[in-house]
Design goal:
With about 90 residues, the chain is an all-alpha fold. It contains four helices and no strands.
């Protein structure tokens, strides 16, 4: 699973920031930063997340599930990848 996370993270970091709806821009960029921080922690900590980080990721996934339906295709792809990363991190830490 670590290889999947690493591969997706590499792809995500190479992707350009997409245009997003103005009304959700701040929230989306916070979600990007928070999930990215959890990915970095996971990779540096040897593949483990603590319970508080898992809870944060679950909240992030719920926020993304709410926001994704209103996004254009490029933004939806970018943030869907983040949602997938969050899910993989949660699974890897169970």
């Amino acid at each position: 699973m670590r290889d999947d996370i690493l591969s997706l993270w590499h792809a995500h970091r190479q992707a350009a920031l997409p245009d997003v709806p103005r009304e959700s821009m701040g929230e989306l960029w916070v979600l990007d930063e928070v999930i990215g921080g959890c990915v970095n922690f996971y990779l540096q900590a040897g593949g483990a997340l603590d319970a508080p980080r898992k809870a944060v990721l679950e909240d992030c996934r719920a926020d993304l599930a709410r926001l994704l339906p209103d996004m254009e295709e490029t933004a939806a792809s970018y943030f869907s990848r983040l949602e997938t990363l969050a899910g993989l991190l949660i699974q890897a830490s169970d």
